[in-house]
């Protein structure tokens, strides 16, 4: 995979943004800033809270400027916001992959009435207006429930069907192979066949699915927060930062407030997408043969 340019670029972007989120506490310790501290001296109250200084208040104290209206350090907000976005997308991806693999293996291996019932459930999920219900769930669930956890569970609930369909197709092909028939003839249990014969041969497919789903969950989670129905206003998140920046950017008061969080989200989605595409090509024998 690393022989391709896109994989190296994707890994570089993904690593840079991931380190920003992982090292958020360290960054706060180095800069002496955190995402909850208000700095009234960094904004101009007479103009409604426009940051004082060039590029949105960039200075030796605030390396990427400050948030208009509050004076909170923008670098700290982006670092902790990246951590929130990555954790939500990672949790949703793992949950969706787990459900999808379980359902897909059951459909492909057992067939019969299991395939009929679960297959209809998968078809139903594909036709379900998931985006509308994602928005509705965020609005009706009480605020006392953890919003990141709610977004994570909601994304996974509506995102497992594509994994199930892909895994089911691969599992059905593998279930007809001679080594699976031989395992059954020796008296191996269904669990043993699924975990020892089928699942190891689906690792490549699952890895590619997970890698390609991750950027989609990042974008959807950020979109919900952008609309103001994702994480709470006190929780730093890239989509919410971008949503809060629209008014300041539209009026021209502080366009840098949109640029820096937008760049972090762009690099996160771009890097994970490029890595996912590179993984897909690496596991595809036909792509390898074409390259040779």
TrEMBL record:
Q: Which family does it belong to?
A: Belongs to the binding-protein-dependent transport system permease family.
- Stored CDD domains: TM_PBP2
The way it spans or sits in the membrane comes to: Multi-pass membrane protein
Main subcellular location: membrane
Entry-linked PROSITE patterns: ABC_TM1
Species in which this protein is naturally found: Luteococcus sanguinis
Q: Which domain of life is it from?
A: Bacteria
Pfam families with a match to the protein in the record: BPD_transp_1
Can you give the residue ranges of the ABC transmembrane type-1 domain?
82-276
The keyword Transport is assigned to this record: yes
Write down the SUPFAM superfamilies for this protein, in alphabetical order.
MetI-like
- The transmembrane segments are 86-110, 122-141, 147-168, 198-218, 256-276
Q: Which Gene3D superfamilies match?
A: MetI-like
Name the chain's protein. Answer: ABC transporter permease
- For the keyword Cell membrane, the answer is yes
Which keywords, in A-to-Z order, does the entry hold?
A: Cell membrane, Membrane, Transmembrane, Transmembrane helix, Transport
Where in the cell is the protein located? Cell membrane
């Amino acid at each position: 995979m690393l022989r391709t340019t896109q994989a190296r670029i994707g890994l570089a972007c993904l690593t840079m943004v991931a380190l920003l989120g992982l090292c958020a506490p360290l960054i706060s310790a180095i800069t002496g800033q955190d995402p909850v501290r208000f700095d009234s001296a960094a904004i101009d109250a007479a103009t409604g809270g426009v940051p004082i200084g060039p590029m949105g208040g960039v200075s030796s104290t605030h390396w990427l400027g400050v948030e208009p209206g509050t004076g909170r350090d923008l670098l700290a907000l982006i670092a902790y916001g990246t951590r929130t976005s990555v954790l939500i997308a990672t949790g949703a991806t793992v949950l969706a992959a787990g459900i999808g693999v379980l359902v897909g293996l059951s459909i492909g291996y057992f067939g019969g009435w299991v395939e009929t019932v679960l297959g209809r459930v998968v078809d139903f999920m594909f036709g379900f207006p998931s985006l509308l219900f994602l928005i509705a769930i965020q609005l009706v669930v009480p605020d006392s429930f953890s919003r990141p956890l709610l977004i994570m569970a909601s994304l996974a609930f509506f995102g497992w069907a594509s994994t199930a369909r892909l895994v089911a197709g691969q599992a059905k092909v593998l279930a007809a192979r001679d080594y699976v028939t031989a395992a059954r003839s020796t008296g191996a249990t269904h669990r043993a066949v699924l975990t020892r014969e089928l699942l190891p041969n689906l690792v490549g497919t699952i890895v590619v699915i997970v890698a390609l789903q991750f950027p989609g969950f990042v974008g959807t989670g950020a979109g919900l927060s952008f609309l103001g129905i994702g994480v709470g206003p006190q929780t730093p998140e890239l989509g919410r930062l971008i949503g809060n920046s629209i008014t300041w950017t539209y009026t021209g008061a502080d366009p840098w407030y949109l640029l820096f969080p937008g760049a972090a989200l762009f690099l996160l989605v771009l890097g994970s997408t490029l890595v996912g595409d590179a993984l897909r090509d690496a596991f595809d024998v036909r792509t390898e043969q074409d390259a040779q």
